[in-house]
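Journal club prep, notes for RB
We'll compare a predicted complex against what the paper describes. Inputs for the XIL case:
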Amino acid sequence: MKLTSRSVSLAAMVSTVLASALGATLIVTGTASAATTLGAAAAQTGRYFGAAIAAGKLGDSTYTGIVNREFNMITAENEMKWDATERGRNQFDYTGGDRILNQALNNGKRVRGHALLWHQQQPGWAQGLSGSDLRSAAINHVTQVATHYKGKIYAWDVVNEAFADGNGGGRRDSNLQRTGNDWIEAAFRAARAADPNAKLCYNDYNTDGVNAKSTGIYNMVRDFKSRGVPIDCVGFQSHLTNGPPGDYQTNLQRFAALGVDVQITELDIAGSSQANGYATVTKACLAVSRCTGITVWGVRDSDSWRTGENPLLFDSNGNKKAAYTSVLNALNAGGTTVPGGDPGTTTTTTTTTTTTTTPPDPGSGDCTASVSLNAWNGGFVATVKVTAGSSGLNGWKVTTSLPSGTTVTGSWSTSGSGTTGTVVWSNVDYNRAVGAGQSTEFGFQGTGGSDGLSPTCAAA
Ligand code: XIL
């Protein structure tokens, strides 16, 4: 008894001394402390931070040192592409791909597979095929490669760059496209059958804002979701100069609202505003709960495919650039949580998230609207589902009433009449028509409270 009380008083004395010595520097915030690597900082928000790497550089200790220290997701820059894995028809060679995979898995990192089908970097024999012969060779390729890597890949870029630039949101012409418009869904179905646990992504570039190309992809993803074609994620390559367009986050969010994850898959940023641009991209991903991670396309500037543009986070000597610090700081500032967390990492949230769904409004007979809320102290993301009545819609309006003090800061797949009070949300071109009994979604985000939005829907 005597001994115990002496121990307690000694312990109390020691902690009092420590507290007075360190008092001014002890800050207890209740949130995780700042991480010192990109991967660890991203993991604290439930996300990953990755890099594309090259097997031929793994003998460079500066390079491999950075890779092992900073990143927790790895992409093969070239080694898992069609020309690398199936040099002759049905002659598969996984030497390079396996080196990347093992480098990642042996160091506790996950792998994004890139890319099963693409119009570029096809082996010569495939470039010479067409029609049903090419289709079956392509599907065989998907099946074989996804089977080889089964259970080891976090997400596959099943199809890469299938949409055209400057073609009103249409597909790119290619030998694959000429096998029939359904080649993309056939590839996704084959990939799911081969590796049911990998997330299956569509990946493309020049899709960073709401534009004709990204809207073409958006419509494809919406169609796939409505018909049960297996798609889990959309990759935004984000090869940028200075920074992303102003509606970058809005664009990510509208895809997320379709029920897919979004990922930044090949980030590199040239130009004098590089550091700011990196921070903007990072913050946008952190603000979208379904944005599960960011990958940069290379390690040092000297490793970049954009020769001479120095678009990466480390200089050619392997030193951290200002852009690195701006990403690390943005990650350490935190973000909204990823639903379900990130397998294999610790999820720490700095926000309180509650999700509520209001019942559909009785409607005018034309349509009904329901809202699903992701709200935290000081802000929210609202996803609104518009469901057509028995005659279908060719234009719609949804009215919401925002509590006082609440301001809308962004929206997607809609145009809104204001940012405070009663706001009327109208369809945009691509979601004007909604078939009888069918639904479409739009969303908005804001600061302030989100109680009692009470959406009502009417045909317009
Ligand atoms: C690039 C690689 O970085 C280069 O090494 C290679 O010579 C060409 O391909 N979009 C993609 C990536 O999806 O696969 C490309 O990678 C960059 C553009």
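Talking point for the session: Residues 2-22 form the longest helix (21 residues).
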